[in-house]
Amino acid sequence: MTTLLLGTRKGLLTYTQTKTGWEPTKIDFAGSPVSHTMRDPRTNIRWAALDHGHWGSKLWRSMDEGATWEEMTAPAYPEGTMRSDGEPATVSYLWLIAPGGKDQPDRMYVGSEPGGLFQSDDGGCSFKLVESLWNHPTREKWWFGGGRDHPGVCSVVVDPRDSNHILIGISVGGVFETTDGGQHWETRNKGLLACYLPDPHSEAGHDPHYMVASPSNPDVLWQQNHCGVFRSVDGAKTWQDISQPEQAIRFGFAIAVDAKDENTAWVVPAISDSDRRAVDRALSVCRTEDGGKTWTTLRNGLPQRETYDVVFRHALDINGEQLAFGSTTGNLFFSADRGDSWQTIGHHLPPIYSVRFTP
Predict the structure, then answer these.
(1) Of the four listed, 28, 210, 304, 340, which is most buried by Cβ atoms within 10 Å?
(2) pLDDT tens across 301-331, in order?
């Protein structure tokens, strides 16, 4: 059975697809914010990152498809590690949990705030800070907080052809690439715009809200950025702005790419950073099938009056022809036909931070 894992403000919710539709079937960590959740396709292990207001960031895993959970040692900065403002670096948020390559069954990555990437080589039992990225010369001047107080590692793209080739998205910091397993990192922001900086073409200081690679062609990458929607066809060496401001395709957080077609992707537009809500108080999803040259606005089945839903960066997912996304106002939407039509499968839920299919 296909399930949806929802990381929400009040726990990890599981929805299961039945013959008659989607049904809520389980809640874990009830009452606790779950910032991110995922299933490792290599091992079928489920992971959940928690954001306790009092107890701090926690990391949990389930070896039995969510029947039981065990707490793992959460990533921590080495003693003496300092933020760019001279304060000690401590994990204030776990943004993302990501698997390593297929040839690295015990490799895991966790992206954190204030901008640290953590790596595990023992299946998540322990983590170490990737100091080569933390010590990148751009960090102290060009990494900073945007919607939150500090920068956060929110995207990890591992090349399926070469597990030592990794692209990282830092909000706010930019895109960084390593080709030697994390020993060295280079900025990959050419063509991006940092519209909030004196020099919008700065080497760093960019804000990729979420970045993904095309499964069918990993050299094609997409990102929903603070300043637009961008696409690269040369492995992030250069980026092209494919926004369509006249269709409100510019600001947003989430982006999803078709597994078989490198030219097809979906975004959920929102009004700009100063006014984060649905455009014209009407919810829509936009799809391109030609690499961003043109976009189709999809509204069938989505609320079109007095709507304030915003979709966060990890709250849109794709599974074949199916799409699902959740909103900050606690609504959960599903499409079985690539976004042509939608149905609401959850109302009055807590704010939704992440949505992931577990086929």
Answers:
(1) 210
(2) 999 999 999 999 999 999 999 999 999 999 9
